[in-house]
Amino acid sequence: MLRPRPGKASEMSEETRRLIWALMALFIGARLLVLGGPLDVPDWRQADTAYMAYRMWQESPPQLLHPKTPFRGAADVKAAEFPVYPFVVSLVWKLLGRESLAAARLVTLAFFAGAVAYAFLAIRLLLGRRVAWLTAAAYALLPLGVPYSRMVHPDFCIIFFCHAFLYHATAFVRRQRIRDYAAATASAILFFLMKAPYGFYLILVPAVIVLHEWGGRRLRGLTLLGSMFVVPLVLGWWFNQWRLQLEAPYRESLAYPMKWTAESLRQRFFGTAAQRLDLGAWDRLIRRSVILVFTVPGALLALYGGGAALARRESRRAALVFWVLCGGVTLYTVVVFPMVASDHEYYSLPFLLPAALGCALGLDRLLAARVVAVRRGLAVLVSAVV
């Protein structure tokens, strides 16, 4: 069974919980001190997103199906992902009565905090409260999330809905409540409209639960899970066709760059098999993952935690969740390899969840062993991030 077992293994001392709260307050609160200042790198992506929000702020009602881009002159409609994040920013600006870079960054930070909260809820449901607390703390501290949680950038908005799907889909297969099914489907609709690759593989986690816990009803459970993706797939396909239709009348030129076509999308996101055999690209991706996503101490903790969980019978459910998530992000990487391996490092943001869980399992193993190295491990992780 994959249900978290009650008892001391899933609990946490008050001292440790206070330490984690302090670390999360420090590292999330510190971001509030850097909401001002000019756009940082990648400034081109932030300028693009901020311009969409700016134009929606000027429109009444905002034209969600005709988002604008700053680099095309008069023919400036450019539908990349469905503009949920720019729309939310524009609503905040309408409430303020003015454009505000700090407010836009605060929206990003709110989505980041929501993504951390949903990660906590999902892991608590799967593996218990202690591992969930450690996962949330690691997620807040890992370095790649630090700059992107304050940028005018849509990706933590997307990840928020991915984590919401993971929690509600997992809650549905555990409790069979209609509201969890509806919330999981709604979350999937939103991330499919923006970046489907960021979250499609998360369905593997509740699918594993169905295989382990539903007995003779496994086929029914898997069918219900799969049905959560029917409407998102249809709407995702529709929006893709819509954005191609918007740009079809124009010819790509210096005045009309980056025209979407079916062929350009295939090349940009899926590429060729030869690209997936490029050892240099894999080397860059692995280095980025170790340095910016896991950190070296975090990678060691994840290997220790994931390996130790496999070796201990009572922890194999934790190992299963961790390695299924690792397999999921590997599948994501292979599917859209050209983008993940490109210089757009934000395509590695989905790696944060398995990285945080791996760090949590390593720290949980140390906590369970009740050794002095627990505090040293926390100190090493914090010092590496700082």
Sequence stretches where pLDDT stays below 50 over 5 or more residues: 5-9
Q: Please identify the structural class as seen in this structure.
A: mainly alpha
> What's the helix count?
19
* SSE order, one letter for each helix or strand: HHHHHHHHHHHHHHHHHHH
Straight-line distance between termini: 39 Å
What is the molecular shape?
Answer: globular
Number of strands: 0
Strand content of the residues, in percent?
under 5%
Percent range of helical residues: 55-70%
Major beta-sheet overview = none
Structural descriptors:
single chain, 386 residues, mainly alpha, 19 helices, globular
Folded structure, characterized:
The chain contains 19 helices and no strands. With 386 residues, the protein is an all-alpha fold. The two termini are 39 Å apart.
Summarize the SSE layout with pairings.
Elements: H1 14-31, H2 43-58, H3 84-96, H4 101-127, H5 129-141, H6 145-148, H7 155-175, H8 178-195, H9 204-213, H10 218-227, H11 230-247, H12 262-270, H13 273-276, H14 279-294, H15 296-311, H16 316-335, H17 337-340, H18 352-369, H19 373-385
Structure summary:
By secondary structure, the protein is mostly helical.
